[in-house]
Amino acid sequence: MTAVIYARYSTDSQREESIEGQIRECTAYAEKNGFTVVKHYIDRAVSAKTDNRPQFQQMIKDSERGIFDVIIVWKLDRFARNRYDSARYKTQLKRNGVKLVSATEVISAGPEGIILESVLEGYAEYYSADLSEKVVRGMTENALKGKFTGDAIPFGYTINADRRFENVLPQKAQGLQEKDRPQTVAGRSCGQSDHAACERRCRHGIHHRQGHGTARPGEHQPSPL
Question: Which tens digits make up the pLDDT trace of 82-98?
Answer without folding.
Answer: 877 888 898 899 999 99
